[in-house]
Backbone:
C-alpha cells in the first residue's frame, strides 16, 4: 500500500482544521460527551440547502469542503466514506413517525435522508463529483475499509484522486443506548482524567474527518499510508498477540517506529490491551494518544489520522506541530480499537 494524503478536513470537539489554532481544546468541565464544534457553514453550503440538512450531512459537507480547499481542488474524482451508524437523527425521526402515525401518510424525506450513504451522496451533489462513490458500513472498521477501497480505486486510476472520510454523529438516544451497553460512561468525567483513571465506558464522541488521497506523491503530500491491518478479537490478550506479530513484521521491513499513536479510550475493558502495548512493544518509543480530543466513536481512527496530518503539516510549514511531531518523527504506528474491532496503521511522514 502506498497512499499519499494531500489535503485534510477535520470537524471535531477541538474545532476544525481550517482554524489557525487547531487543535483547540474541548470543554474543560466534566462531561459525558465531546460534541463537534460546528463552524459557520454559510461559506460551504448555500443557505437554502443548509436549513434542510441534518447535522451529519452538514458536518460531512463542511469537512469535505475544508479538505478540498486544503488540497486546492474544486471537486474530487471519487468519494469513499466510512460510517458505522449513518444519519442517526434522521433514522430516529423516520422510525418515530412510523410509530406515532401508525405507518400511515409517511413522507419519504426522512427515510431518504436516513440511509448510510446520504452524506456521500450529498457531498457528490454539492461538489459536482459524479464518479465512483461508495459508503462502507463495517462497524469499527468502516473508515479502514473506506481507505482500502481508495487503494483499489487508485490502482486503476494511477493519476487520479479520491476523497476518503469517516463520519459519525451523536444523538441523545444513541448516547443513552450505548451507556446502557457500557460503551460510554454513565456519569460525566474530565476528558484527561478518563485516560489516567480508567473506568466503565469511554467518553462519547463524534466527528467528520476527510482526506484527499492520491497514489502519486506531490509537493503538498503530508504523509504516506504504508499499511492497514484490521482484525476482530474478543480477548485483549489475543489482540496484543496479533498486534505484536504485525509490529514485528513492520520492524523487519522498515525498522523501529519513531512514534506510537494509541487509541487509549479510558475504558477499563481496553486498558490492559493498551498497557501491554505501551510496556511490551513501545517502551522506548515516543507515545501519544488522541481520544482525549475526539472521544470514542466507531471511526475515531479517522480523527487520529487527521490530527497526525495536521501536526505534520504544521511542522512542514515551520510550525511546532503542537509539540507532537518534529523533524525527527518520520514513521508512526497508530493502533486503535472500537469494542472488538482493532486496526493498525503504518504511516510515514513525508
Residues:
Amino acid at each position: 500500500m502506498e497512499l499519499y494524503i494531500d489535503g485534510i478536513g477535520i470537524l471535531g470537539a477541538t474545532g476544525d482544521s481550517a482554524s489557525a489554532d487547531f487543535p483547540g481544546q474541548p470543554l474543560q468541565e466534566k462531561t459525558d460527551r465531546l460534541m463537534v464544534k460546528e463552524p459557520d457553514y454559510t461559506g460551504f453550503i448555500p443557505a437554502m440547502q443548509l436549513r434542510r440538512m441534518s447535522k451529519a450531512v452538514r458536518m460531512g459537507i463542511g469537512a469535505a469542503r475544508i479538505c478540498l480547499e486544503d488540497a486546492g481542488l474544486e471537486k474530487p474524482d471519487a468519494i469513499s466514506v466510512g460510517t458505522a451508524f449513518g444519519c442517526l437523527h434522521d433514522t430516529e425521526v423516520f422510525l418515530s413517525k412510523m410509530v406515532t402515525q401508525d405507518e400511515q401518510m409517511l413522507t419519504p424525506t426522512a427515510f431518504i435522508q436516513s440511509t448510510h450513504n446520504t452524506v456521500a451522496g450529498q457531498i457528490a451533489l454539492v461538489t459536482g463529483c459524479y464518479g465512483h462513490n461508495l459508503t462502507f458500513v463495517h462497524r469499527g472498521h468502516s473508515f479502514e475499509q473506506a481507505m482500502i477501497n481508495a487503494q483499489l480505486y487508485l490502482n486503476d486510476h494511477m493519476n487520479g484522486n479520491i476523497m476518503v472520510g469517516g463520519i459519525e454523529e451523536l444523538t441523545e438516544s444513541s448516547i443513552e443506548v450505548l451507556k446502557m451497553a457500557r460503551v460510554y460512561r454513565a456519569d460525566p468525567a474530565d476528558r484527561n482524567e478518563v485516560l489516567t483513571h480508567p473506568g466503565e465506558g469511554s467518553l462519547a464522541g463524534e466527528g467528520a474527518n476527510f482526506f484527499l488521497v492520491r497514489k502519486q506523491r506531490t509537493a503538498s503530500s503530508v504523509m504516506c499510508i504504508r499499511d492497514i491491518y484490521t482484525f476482530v478479537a474478543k480477548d485483549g490478550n489475543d489482540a496484543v498477540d496479533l498486534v505484536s506479530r504485525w509490529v514485528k513484521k513492520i520492524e523487519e521491513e522498515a525498522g523501529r517506529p519513531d512514534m506510537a499513536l494509541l487509541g487509549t479510550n479510558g475504558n477499563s475493558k481496553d486498558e490492559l490491551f493498551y498497557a501491554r502495548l505501551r510496556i511490551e512493544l513501545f517502551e522506548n518509543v515516543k507515545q501519544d494518544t488522541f481520544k482525549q480530543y475526539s472521544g470514542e466513536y466507531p471511526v475515531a481512527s479517522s480523527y487520529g489520522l487527521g490530527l497526525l496530518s495536521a501536526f505534520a503539516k504544521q511542522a512542514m510549514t515551520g510550525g511546532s506541530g503542537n509539540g507532537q511531531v518534529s523533524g525527527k518523527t518520520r514513521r508512526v504506528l497508530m493502533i486503535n480499537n472500537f469494542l472488538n474491532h482493532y486496526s493498525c496503521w503504518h504511516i510515514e511522514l513525508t
Notes: The chain has two domains: 3-214, 224-349.
